[in-house]
Amino acid sequence: MHAATVLAQLDHYLDPETGGLVPSIHPAVTHAPPGDAAMGTGSTASRYARSGNSGATVAERVLAQLEGGAAAAVFSAGASAAQAVLANLRPGDHLVLDSAAYYEFGAIIERFGQRWGVTVARADMCCPETVRQAMRPGETRLVWAECPSNPLWRVPDITALAAIAHQGGAQLLVDATVATPVLCRPLDFGADLVLHSATKYLNGHGDLVAGALITAQAGAAWQEILASRVAHGSVLPPFEAWLLLRGMRSLALRVERASQTALKIATTLATHPGVGAVHYPGLPGDPHHELAQRQFLGGFGGMLSFEIAGTAADALAICERTAVFRRSTSLGSTESLIEHRRSTEGERSTCPEALIRLSIGLEHAEDLIVDLQRALSGMRRMAEAPLAEMI
Ligand code: PLP
Questions:
Q1: Kindly report the CA angle at 196 between 198 and 55, in degrees rounded to 5?
Q2: Which residues contact 278 (CB under 8 A, 6 or more apart)?
Q3: Which residues does this entry mark as bearing N6-(pyridoxal phosphate)lysine (predicted)?
């Protein structure tokens, strides 16, 4: 079944009690199933809400199906999903982390990893040889990649990474927040776990923080992840689960539209005299285009970046001049966002200083293109104007 169909109907959802075609919200913390007088029988999940809730269960079923996984778990944030995975590393374990991983994950892992006795090596996931060299056989438990990676939207070869991880006795986790299961299913290429910040495209309306993990196998390691979620109290709560399900119903359509618009914008920017480089795997000249074509299903996503022929100050000025794009961070919502990525990431950022990151939303492509052209033409006028004119 196509992702669009699974999503639109939430896996042919039918409320077992009401016959409703959308799930209801069940906020009860504790449950007393009829006929189950003996406390201690029945699953904890059906008794106490820190273990799960009916909305979370529906989202998990849909996500597992979309990703072709054995099971899924939804969390109160993408960061909580990450924590649940990291909580299962032990002192002495080693982790190979994408050098382009979401910058806060890098900071979290470096900060807490030391306390846990976990060591971390950063590696370029688009260069499998570097990953192979970073592996420590017998110690490396996890390889953590992002597809595509932020903010250059580079696409790692998931099949190659899975082979390297497995040869070294490790698992491969792919953060596919940006690709979404509509465009890429990492488990099909051999990954063991998929992570999503459901805050982004899965919900898609900029009004919810949520996370998800999907596993290829629901064995002992997965049970530990679920146990960690219960221990941390990080399951996605009922109201938030309902909101996520509501957002997910239109995911396929939103991703399709954002991908189409992003390609139009990338193509326009690529010929603009004020733009030095455009980073978008959908462009035929992009170094990651061929791999993206093989790994992605019918689109290249709504995220792109471009570097202007100018300074960080010029890039910031362009962000300020846009009138349709909203100047803010995050991604995957209905409104298009523009940001100077290096300022967002802070001092330790390795992001090119004149790089502008765009998250494409659902506005009309023409309005976004005209907005960028206006902002960029301001830059040319500034660059070309004699100093006296500018003062
Ligand atoms: N993964 C990626 C690629 C992200 O961009 C983010 C947040 O921006 C996260 C994970 C963390 O997710 P959350 O903010 O939902 O905790």
A1: 50
A2: 266, 269, 270, 286, 304, 305, 306
A3: 200
Q: What is the pLDDT of residues 281-292, one digit of tens each?
A: 999 999 999 999
Which residues does residue 168 pair with via DSSP β-bridges, in sequence order?
none
Tell the residue nearest (CA) to atom 15 of ligand 1.
78
Residue 381's Cα: distance from chain center in Å? Answer: 37
- Mode of pairing for the β-strands spanning 355-359 and 303-308: antiparallel
Query: What string of H, E and C letters represents the secondary structure of 93-145?
Result: CEEEEECCCCHHHHHHHHHHHHHHCCEEEEECCCCHHHHHHHCCCCCEEEEEE
Query: Are the C-beta atoms of 72 and 60 separated by less than 8 Å?
Result: yes
Domain with residues 3-248, CATH architecture = 3-Layer(aba) Sandwich (3.40)
Q: Considering the entire predicted model, what is its pTM?
A: 0.94
Q: How far is residue 214's CA from residue 181's CA, in Å, rounded to a whole number?
A: 11
The span from the CA of 84 to the CA of 377, in Å, is 47
Tell the residue number behind the tokens 């900029």, with chain if given.
Answer: 206
Q: What is the tens place of the pLDDT at every residue in 32-89?
A: 877 766 655 455 556 899 999 999 999 999 999 999 999 999 999 999 999 999 999 9
The yes-or-no answer on residue 185 being catalytic is: no
Q: In the annotation, is 50 catalytic?
A: yes
Q: Does domain 251-390 have CATH number 3.90.1150.10?
A: yes
Domain locations along the chain? 3-248, 251-390
Say yes or no: CB of residue 151 within 6 Å of ligand 1: no
Catalytic, 175? Answer yes
